[in-house]
Amino acid sequence: MKSFFEFFKELFQTSDFMPRWVCGHWTEAHGWLYILSNVVIGLSYFAIPIMLFHFVKKKKNVPFKGVFILFSLFIVFCGVTHILDAIIFWIPFYRLNALVLCLTAVISATTVFAMYNKLPLALSLKSPEQMQKIIDSQTADLLHVNKLLTESEEQFRALVNNNPDIITLMDANLRYKFVNDSLSKLNDKSLDSYIGRTPLEVMPDHPPTEIFTNHLKHVFESGKKVHYEVNTTFEKIGQAYFSVDMIPLTNKWNHVSDVITITKNITPIIQNEKKLHDTIAKLEKFSTQLEYKRNTLQDFTYIVSHNLRSPTGNLISLIALYNKTGTAEKKELLLAKIFDVSQQLGNTVQDLGEVLNIANNTNLTTELLSFKTVVENQQKNLAAQIMESGATITCDFAGCETITYPKVYLESIILNLLTNAIKYSSEKRKPIIHFRTTISEKGIITLTCSDNGLGIDVSKHGKKLFSLHKTFHNNPDARGVGLFITKNQINAMGGSIKIDSEPDKGATFIIHFNEIEL
């Protein structure tokens, strides 16, 4: 241990040794060849680490940097040993040289160990030729994939552009990133003018633009799909209906990055729906007409059966008695009765024929009629009866002044109402007749006719009031036909009639003209 410390203490002492020039028999040529060779080798060793350091610094991502550092230190120490070997010719630094050789040995052994550990990995590295082949192969693969991607993109673009729906891609700033060719069907703007601009910048004055923008903002904020329909007008196609779907696209952070919009022209669908609704309405109208005619036919069948059965049976019985009777006096009496029954039967058949004609004429020509004018004309027709009865007729048509209706029917309805009010007036008071019209929110026109006449017990006779040949007062002119015909005329045009009345308190007839569209 003492000699070890003495070694380092006398590391730079040279008195124990002699310079190499004086040790042995060195010639000038031999000595200088030895010296110069060591100097050149040492300087070369110093140059190699410098170049390696420059290489590692310039070349990024160089593998095995630790081996490079150890190898550089090994070369530097090798160079130092050669330089010291040359210096020893004049200054005998044998102790220092021994220390440098020792350090060189340690570094060289460490370098060998490090290189041995890295050798398998180094052997696995590809040669430049192999790397070039790999690069060429991967380049070919990339070119092939790029070609496929290009073809796929072209196919996708062709598919999207040939799609009749309008497809766009919007970014988070509400700007167009992509629009397909279908957008050019709406206006004359170039498709490039949309890219990088917002809808409000492209079409600021188009009403649906603000709706489109608001829905787009909602999709970006909520991340949920949106569907809505809009009716608007464009330069090339005019008015049209559109169905708009907005679909959010999310990134890896689950944030909405873009939105796809798909706008479909649904005008044909809407038009077909309207046609379907119109067809259904026509079928419902036709069904209503058929139902009305069926009900009318049933009523008519019942009326015919009821109103013809009695006079017909009576006539048959009278004829049978006539044939059995032998005296001329009885035959003459029976013949007079047969004549009366025949006349009654004829009147009944005539009345039924008029009712049947009403039921079969639902397509009468209609025109715009004034209630006031029709009432005034019927007053003129009944001037004698009105004057004789002293009737007062008032009107209030402010609620609805006109109606589109068959003229012959409205005149007949007003005439029957006036005639009925005068015919069944009370002897206690002069007739007062009042007409009034109203129209509901649904457009149903109502006419009321009120009088102060005899009235009728509706609870007792209400169901028979509008039947044929039903009378409820001892008036010799009453035939029970007028109200029956009025009811059938009103029903034939899709309306209804009812009465509100009490005995000796007058009656109010209420007519709803257009309850059902026929």
Secondary structure topology:
Elements: H1 2-9, H2 28-58, H3 65-87, H4 94-124, H5 128-161, E1 166-171, E2 176-179, H6 199-202, H7 207-222, E3 226-234, E4 238-250, E5 256-265, H8 267-324, H9 328-359, E6 367-370, H10 371-381, H11 383-389, E7 392-396, E8 402-405, H12 407-423, E9 432-439, E10 445-451, H13 458-461, H14 482-492, E11 496-501, E12 507-512
Parallel strand pairs: 7-9
Antiparallel strand pairs: 1-2, 1-5, 3-4, 4-5, 6-8, 9-10, 10-12, 11-12
Question: How would you describe this protein?
Answer:
With 518 residues, this protein is α+β, with helices and mostly antiparallel strands. The protein folds into five domains: 123 residues, no CATH class; 27 residues; 103 residues, PAS domain (Beta-Lactamase, 2-Layer Sandwich); 73 residues; 146 residues, Heat Shock Protein 90. The strands form three sheets. The chain has a five-stranded antiparallel sheet, sandwiched between helices. Strands 7-9-10-12-11 form a five-stranded mixed sheet, with helices on one face. A hairpin with a 5-residue loop joins β11 and β12. The termini are far apart.
Structural class: alpha+beta
Examine the coordinates and then state which fold CATH places here, giving the name of the CATH topology of the largest domain.
Answer: Heat Shock Protein 90
Q: Order of helices and strands, N to C? A: HHHHHEEHHEEEHHEHHEEHEEHHEE
CATH class of the largest domain: Alpha Beta
Largest sheet descriptor? 5 strands, antiparallel
Stretches where pLDDT is under 50 for at least 5 consecutive residues are 468-473
Overall number of structural domains:
5
Distance between the termini: 132 Å
Q: Which descriptor suits the 3D outline?
A: rod-shaped
Strand order of the largest sheet: 2-1-5-4-3
Gyration radius, to the nearest Å?
A: 60 Å
Rounded mean pLDDT score:
78
Number of strands: 12
The CATH homologous superfamily of the largest domain:
Histidine kinase-like ATPase, C-terminal domain
Total helices: the number is 14
Strand fraction equals 15-25%
Query: In CATH terms, what is the architecture of the largest domain?
Result: 2-Layer Sandwich
- Helical residue percent band: 55-70%
